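Sequence in, structure out. First:
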Amino acid sequence: MERKIAVEDGLAPVKEFLRNKGYQVVGMQSGQQVDGAVVSGMDNNMMDIQNVVIDAPVVNARGKTPQDILQELESKWLH
């Protein structure tokens, strides 16, 4: 079964890398159930309003390569 990963907008290289590795990539606002999520690490939420709830591992992409991000996700799926 193909895992589905939500990736924040602005992380095109990560999206492309994950797709090339056989993962289904969706947007953060898709409303779909996902197996993991990747966020940019940038805080654009000035009012601290959270409107996305994800019951899956979340990886902060800041300072990481796409390979690092996938390795962290896969590690979290094992635990």
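Second:
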Amino acid sequence: MSKRIGKQTVRLSEKVSILSAASTVGPKEAEGPLSKYFDQRVEDIYFGEKTWELAESKFVEKNMGLAIQKANLKPKDIDYVLCGDLLNQCTGSTFGIKNLEIPFFGLFGACSTMGESMSLGAMLIDGGFANYVLTGASSHFCAAEKQFRFPLPLGTQRPPTSTWTVTGDGAVVLSRKGDGPKIVEITTGKIVDMGVTDANNMGAAMAPAAVALLKAHFEDTGRKPQDYDVIATGDLGTVGRQLVVELMEKEGYDMDSRYTDCGIEIFDAKKQDTHAGGSGCACSAVTFCAYFYPKLVSGEIRRMLFIPTGALMSPTSSQQGQPIPGIAHGVVIEGCKKGAK
């Protein structure tokens, strides 16, 4: 029996439980509006390490361990770990999880990686290949700026369209059984390339991919935006969110106040000078784990469409004049009944 509904969406036979969620962030995130929701707030951007890249691996190591602990499990109980980051060859993840000694799938979906890892993890469980899967994503502001834009010592001025890469790691443990929030459907995105070349305008590069994903999801499921309590894209920021609203309106969809973006939620753009908002793999990961997951647990959110978005670029592609393709991955999550968990 096929689990596919429409062209890009699958409906899981078994609802996959999100058993636990953990979030660890850096100092700027700890100063933002979601500060009280994070599990761990690190005051040192180096996290006690010699380099930013080593610091990112430490964020991964500590937070992945915390997610397992919060699920009342041990590393040996986890069948697979799926995660990724923005560093070359995903070294942030590799060195962060190597000591867990868990079978590992390294992923690169740029800033959409949290949606990609949750999607594939849920499929592994639904397919009967695993009982427990640890999924997550990380990023680090300083490392990302050095790799994709300019070295920080240059003091380069950031344009108003730019976003601030979130420093931290978000992780969830998925389970075949459990009374946590449930992943019920997955809509996998296609690469969308509209020719945007400005690495300081990630919102414009990724918004068309988010729109394509939303359209595919609504067509596959027969739903509309108002069928969800919350729709949250990953890290489009204020610029990208507005583009999504305008483009969806042209397609006949009203993206009302229930539609938000993790890049808008995580920072106070005016007080923290983050311009268009937050971005990076950790943006959607820590915002979901810290802010939205408890609302799903409490039943305040009954149904959520979580859509991490990513810009599939590299330093090499940018240096060679290539545009920035976008991708988005959608995960439908049902909250617990009020009073349950």
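Remark: The chain has two domains: 4-175, 182-334.
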